Amino acid sequence: KRSSKWISTSIPRTKWFTSTSNQLSSADYHTQSILNKVLFSQTTELIPSNAVVIEIAPDDVLHYILTSSLPLNVTNLVLTRQTDKNINTILQGIGKLYNCGLQPQVANLYPPVEFPVSRGTPMISPSIR
């Protein structure tokens, strides 16, 4: 289920809580998000001061519009860009979340490490600069 802080730009505000599919971050929700027009003006007024806005989209389509429309104390993050390697973009976004004082659970991005590791596992210290 989506967080109550999730502001949708693809569903009219009056329909946010009328159906279960509008409350889930599902394939159906994201498909509708791609197919429907962006309801930008109804959502920007709901973004509070000092908020962190994360654009969840296949590209940073609204990044520049959001940056110019929102107050300066709102942090605007994107997690994907078509021109970049997305791993770099997503890791930079996670770093910016830390800088905003949030605590992303980075360990959830990776499978759990089984200990002890095998004897032939190379050391990582030579890779750290």
TrEMBL record:
Top-rank lineage group of the source organism: Eukaryota
GO MF terms held by the record: transferase activity
InterPro entries xrefs: Ac_transferase_dom_sf
Stated name of the protein: FAS synthase
The organism of origin for this protein: Acromyrmex charruanus
Protein encoded by which gene: Fasn_7
